[in-house]
Amino acid sequence: ETGVTQSPTHLIKTRGQQVTLRCSSQSGHNTVSWYQQALGQGPQFIFQYYREEENGRGNFPPRFSGLQFPNYSSELNVNALELDDSALYLCASSLGGTSGGYEQYFGPGTRLTVT
Amino acid sequence: ELKVEQNPLFLSMQEGKNYTIYCNYSTTSDRLYWYRQDPGKSLESLFVLLSNGAVKQEGRLMASLDTKARLSTLHITAAVHDLSATYFCAVNYGGSQGNLIFGKGTKLSVKP
Q1: Which residues of B touch A31 (CB under 8 A)?
Q2: Residues 71-100 of chain A whose Cβ lies under 8 A from any Cβ of chain B
Q3: Each residue of B67-78: pLDDT tens digit?
Q4: In terms of Cα–Cα distance, which of A17, A18, A4, A1 is closest to A72?
């Protein structure tokens, strides 16, 4: 059973650029949630995808967008990067639906630095 | 809006001592999570608490949940240096596969 993986590990971008982060969910999981963790803070929910559809969104602007693919992997896209977007981005994989469990398994994260 | 508050935010302990971290949340939720995070690392799941009165223990850590008081505690017994990390509680919000609302974390430092 493979765990949650994320790529890249680290990324440096310039303000105004666009970035795509990737997440592969744990085998058998159909739900991916994305979180942003600023330095010294708790993670904040960005959005969740369940079976390729957005299934909830936190208080983030539209320049944060996402996708989920048929294999349940997911992308987080951020346009027009701002300095405050510098953070650790975590994805969490879980099994949603009526047979779903309670655990959300977190990937290792992508550290994004915006200069 | 669901809010999750942890205290203390910083905790310096001596090895061998006991201490408790508190997690209060503002509205009803059907589950509460505790995670550990080492510097620069991701979140490691410690406990998932699903019902009022639930108590779970793993090694020197014990977590409990009082849904009526909207309070969870993480008790540390006879702390050791390896427990030094940041501990987060998180509450499920929005249904069966809702999102997690996290507290700000408690940074624990255990000193010899």
Answers
A1: 97
A2: 90, 92, 94, 96-98, 100
A3: 999 999 999 999
A4: A4
Phi, psi of A83, deg, nearest 5: -55, -35
The angle formed by the CA atoms of residues B81, B88 and B16, to the nearest 5 degrees, is: 25
> Is B92's pLDDT higher than 90?
no
Contacts of A113 in chain B (CB under 8 A): none
The dihedrals phi and psi of B81, each to the nearest 5 degrees, come to -55, -35
- The one-letter amino acid at A26: Q
Instruction: Say whether A109 sits in a helix, a strand or coil.
Output: coil
**pLDDT tens digits, residue range B11-69?**
999 999 999 999 999 988 878 999 999 998 999 999 999 888 899 999 999 999 999 99
- Cβ–Cβ contacts within 10 Å for residue A102, how many? 15
Can you give chain B as a three-state secondary structure string? Answer: CCCEEEECCEEEEECCCCEEEEEEECCCCCCEEEEEECCCCCEEEEEEECCCCCEEEECCEEEEEECCCCEEEEEECCCCHHHCEEEEEEEEECCCCCEEEECCCEEEEEEC
Tens digit of each residue's pLDDT (9 = 90 or more) over A41-98: 999 999 999 889 998 899 999 999 999 999 999 999 999 999 999 999 999 998 876 5
DSSP label at A40? T
Cα Rg, chain B, nearest whole Å: 13
